[in-house]
Write a structure and sequence with these properties.
By secondary structure, the chain is an alpha+beta fold. Helices cover 36% and strands 29% of the residues.
Length: 440
C-alpha cells in the first residue's frame, strides 16, 4: 500500500494535496475490496452467507516434464446462466534449481539501450547510468559480448557487439564516459538499432537487452502498441528485454508494459545508486537460464475467448483462429513465473464445458518438452440463476481478488498516467474514483 502511494506521489510531483487526496481514495478503494470480512463486494449478500457452508473443490490442474511444473487454477469455475462469463485462470511455472556443478554458463550477449536526452542531466542521472554500465562491464568476461545503443532525438550505435577482453573493456568504458545529454526522446529508434544488432547474434548465447530511460517517448514511434511490437520481436529471437525507469518524469505504464512484452524485469529507481545492483541482477539472470524460450498454447473451446494474458502478447495461430499462443520467454533455474489469463466464456446454456486444450512447451538445450494440463480439471459450469449461492461458494476468493485487482488496476494506471501527462488532475482523480466505484 505504501509503495503504491509513493508511486502516485511520484507521478503527481510535489503536490502534497494531490498525494493526500490520492492516498485517501486508495484507502477507500482497498477498504472496499476487503471490507470488514476481507472479501470482495461480490461475496456480499445471501451468497456470502452460504459460502462457508457449501463444499468447494478447487478447479486445478498440474503437470510436469524435465523438472518443470505448470499449474493452472480457475478463480470462479461456476457461473450463472445469462450473466457475464469472465473467468480468471492462474498459470504458475516452477523450474528446478540445478546444482552449481551441472550448470553450464552460456556466454552472454548484453545490449544496453541508454536514453541520453536532455532531461538525463537532472539529478546526475546520466553519470549514475554511466557508472552502472562501467560496473556491469567489469563483471563481463572475454566470452561475453557487449553492445551499446544511445538515443535522444535520434539514435546511434556507440559500440556494436565486441568481446569484453581487457583491452576492449577499457575501450568500451571510454566510449560510455563520452556519452552526454542530448535533446528529445526517440525511444523507438534506439530499440530498432538494438534489434538490428541482435539479428546477427548466435542462438547458442544468452541474450539480454536493458532499456534505461527517464522520459516518455516523444519523437518517432510513440504509441505503446508500436513500441511493444518492436520489443515483441526480441522475444521471438530468444532475447529478454528488461526496462529501468529513472527519475520522476518517465512513463511508468509504458516501461512496465515494454518489460512485459520483452519477458524481462521492470524496475523503478527511487534511489539512483541502486542502478548498478539492478544491472548486475540482469546479468546474473542471463547466466542461470534453464530454457531459452517457452510458450503457452491454448486451443480454445467453442465460444471461449482470451482477453488478456497478464501483459504477455497474445498471438493467434495462422492455421486456426481458435488457437492462442503466449510467448513466456526464458525460464530461469530455481524460479517461479506466474500470471493470469482473463477469459470470456459463453453462459447462455447450462452445463459443464472445457476451456480448451492447454499446453506449455519449452526447449532445454536442443531437447524440446511439453506439458499438457488436464482439460476436465479446468472445466467450468454454467448454473441456473437460482443456484447463485453455489456459484459464489465455488469462487476462490483470494485468487479472484488478486486477479481482478491486478487486471483492473493496470487499466486504471494507464488512464491515470495519461491524465497526469496532460496535467489533468481532475481526470486522474476520476480514474481512481471509477476504479473505486467498480469495487464498491
Amino acid at each position: 500500500m505504501d509503495t503504491l502511494i509513493r508511486r502516485f506521489g511520484r507521478l503527481t510531483g510535489k503536490n502534497a494535496a494531490g498525494v493526500i487526496i490520492l492516498s485517501g481514495l486508495l484507502f477507500a478503494t482497498f477498504a472496499g475490496v476487503y471490507g470488514s470480512g476481507g472479501m470482495l463486494s461480490i461475496f456480499h449478500g445471501a451468497g456470502a452467507a452460504m459460502a462457508a457452508s457449501l463444499p468447494w473443490q478447487p478447479a486445478r490442474s498440474s503437470g510436469s516434464a524435465a523438472g518443470v511444473t505448470v499449474t493452472g487454477h480457475l478463480s470462479n469455475p461456476k457461473l450463472i446462466q445469462g450473466q457475464p462469463g469472465e473467468i480468471y485462470l492462474s498459470i504458475k511455472i516452477d523450474t528446478p534449481k540445478l546444482p552449481e556443478s551441472s550448470v553450464i554458463r552460456q556466454p552472454t550477449d548484453m545490449v544496453v539501450i541508454l536514453d541520453h536526452s536532455g532531461s538525463m542531466a537532472a539529478e546526475n542521472r546520466l553519470p549514475y547510468a554511466r557508472k552502472a554500465i562501467t560496473d556491469l562491464l567489469a563483471r563481463l568476461n572475454a566470452q561475453d559480448r557487449f553492445a551499446l545503443v544511445v538515443f535522444d532525438s535520434g539514435a546511434q550505435v556507440i559500440s556494436p557487439f565486441v568481446y569484453v577482453t581487457d583491452s576492449e573493456r577499457a575501450n568500451l568504458i571510454s566510449r560510455v564516459s563520452a556519452v552526454y545529454p542530448g535533446s528529445g526522446t526517440n525511444m523507438g529508434h534506439g530499440i530498432q538499432l538494438a534489434r538490428q544488432l541482435l539479428e546477427g547474434s548466435s542462438t547458442n548465447r544468452s541474450r539480454r537487452t536493458i532499456l534505461l530511460s527517464d522520459g516518455e517517448a516523444n519523437e518517432g514511434i510513440v504509441a505503446p502498441e508500436g513500441l511493444g511490437g518492436l520489443v515483441g520481436d526480441f522475444v521471438s529471437r530468444d532475447t529478454v528485454v528488461s526496462t529501468i525507469g529513472m527519475g520522476l518524469g518517465f512513463n511508468e505504464s509504458l516501461m512496465s508494459y515494454l518489460a512485459d512484452r520483452g519477458g524481462g524485469n521492470y524496475s523503478y529507481l527511487e534511489h539512483l545508486e541502486r542502478l548498478a545492483e539492478i544491472l548486475n541482477k540482469d546479468l546474473l539472470d542471463a547466466r542461470r537460464i534453464f530454457a531459452a524460450n517457452s510458450e503457452l498454447k491454448i486451443d480454445l473451446g467453442p465460444g471461449v475467448n482470451i482477453i488478456s494474458a497478464g501483459g504477455y502478447p497474445i498471438e493467434r495461430d495462422f492455421i486456426s483462429a481458435d488457437t492462442a499462443r503466449i510467448r513466456t520467454g526464458q525460464l530461469l533455474g530455481g524460479s517461479s513465473k506466474s500470471f493470469f489469463l482473463t477469459l470470456n466464456v459463453p453462459t447462455s446454456s447450462t452445463g459443464s464445458y472445457d476451456l480448451g486444450k492447454i499446453s506449455f512447451s519449452f526447449k532445454q538445450g536442443d531437447t524440446p518438452a511439453e506439458i499438457a494440463l488436464k482439460s476436465s480439471d479446468l472445466a467450468y459450469a454454467v448454473l441456473e440463476p437460482h443456484r447463485r449461492d453455489e456459484a459464489v461458494a465455488a469462487i476462490d476468493q483470494v485468487l479472484y481478488r488478486e486477479a481482478w485487482s491486478k487486471n483492473n488496476y493496470g487499466l486504471m494506471q494507464q488512464e491515470l498516467q495519461k491524465a497526469l501527462v496532460r496535467g489533468d488532475r481532475a481526470a486522474a482523480l476520476s480514474a481512481i474514483s471509477s476504479y473505486d466505484s467498480a469495487l464498491a
